[in-house]
Amino acid sequence: MEFENLLVERSDGVAIVTINRPKALNALNAGTLEELLSAVTNLEKDEQVKAIILTGSGSKAFVAGGDISFMQSLQPIAAREFAHLGQKVFGVIEALAKPVIAAVNGFALGGGCELAMACDFRLAGENARFGQPEVNLGVIPGFGGSQRLPRLVGKGRAKELLFTGDLIDSREAWRIGLVNRVVPQEALLATAREIARKIADKGPLAVRLCKHAVNNGLEMESEKGCAYEAELFALCFATEDRAEGMRAFIEKRPATFLGR
Ligand code: CO8
User: Which domains does the chain have, with CATH numbers?
Assistant: First the structure.
């Protein structure tokens, strides 16, 4: 996969997608969003890839937001289209049949924070900074931030970040539940890879169904979510991976999952 603004590498079941516009601190323009969509949909189809890591190039930024130079001249109709494009791409990432881990290596602002929030979970380097500073520009988040942030950290904390535009460091992001772990900057990718590798060894169908159960179940009332979980649980029993997983346990050996 060759892209202008992305790097994609694959090894040992794990793909790393790097947003690569370091001169603009990896800001997202329409072209980069289209490339991201193409990259993740290709990786979803690639049977060798079991987990995806998303990060930014350089040591300064994950993604410093939507590209302000690109947005500056947008009229309302084009702005809505841009918001819809970002929301579509982030929706695809959120619903992707494979886990996506954000390795936040620096600024994750505006659209960058929104991108990280569309991933399944986030790891942060010590120098990462998060924020939704759109109000400083006279706008609001357009790539789902007003919806995903309160779902992740609660309404009050989200509103404070959204209304003030304040940036928070990685420790504070960890404290409020925006990131799962803070690791030394130099260990960030290795840690993300280690977690992705661990997931890659599990039954891919089970991981996929876990993701469905959490993502879709959380949109339902608890009782319906549990009923949905039971259906997905039953579905696992139609897979070879389930038979292999349980057989391997009984035979006291590691399971070899084939994803079927
Ligand atoms: N867009 C375009 N270029 C950017 C962006 C950006 N978001 N962020 C940084 N850059 C560029 C700078 O213009 C600069 O370029 P140049 O060297 O050509 O002047 C280069 O990256 C380096 O940036 P700085 O010199 O500013 O670096 P500093 O270390 O001084 O500051 C900051 C780093 C704090 C990250 C600073 O660059 C900054 O505040 N950036 C903007 C952050 C921001 O406001 N992000 C939110 C943007 S709005 C948004 O994301 C909404 C998305 C959804 C919209 C959908 C509806 C249409």
Answer: 6-200 (3.90.226.10), 203-251 (1.10.12.10)
16/11 Cα distance (integer angstroms):
9
- Check whether 48 has a pLDDT greater than 80: yes
Strand partners, 19: 6, 56
Atom 19 (ligand 1) nearest CA: 24
Query: How far from the centroid of its chain's Cα atoms is residue 94's Cα?
Result: 6
Residue-by-residue DSSP string for 62-130? EE--B-HHHHHT--HHHHHHHHHHHHHHHHHHHH-SS-EEEEE-SEEETHHHHHHHHSSEEEEETT-EE
Alpha carbons 91 and 144: distance in angstroms, whole number: 9
* Whether the predicted pLDDT of 1 surpasses 90: no
pLDDT tens for each residue of 76-91: 999 999 999 999 999 9
Q: Which of 4, 47, 94, 114 is catalytic?
A: 114
CA of residue 25 to ligand 1 center, whole Å: 7
Q: Are 84 and 204 in contact (CB under 8 A)?
A: no
Residue 218: band (very low, low, confident or very high) from pLDDT cuts 50, 70, 90:
very high
Give the mean model confidence (pLDDT) for residues 126-149. Answer: 98
The predicted structure's pLDDT at residue 2: 86
pTM assigned to the model: 0.97
Note if 94 is an active site residue.
Answer: no
Q: Return the residue matching tokens 């702005």.
A: 79
For ligand 1, say whether the CB of 89 is within 6 Å of any of its atoms.
Answer: no
Locate the ligand 1 atom nearest the alpha carbon of residue 65 and give its number: 50
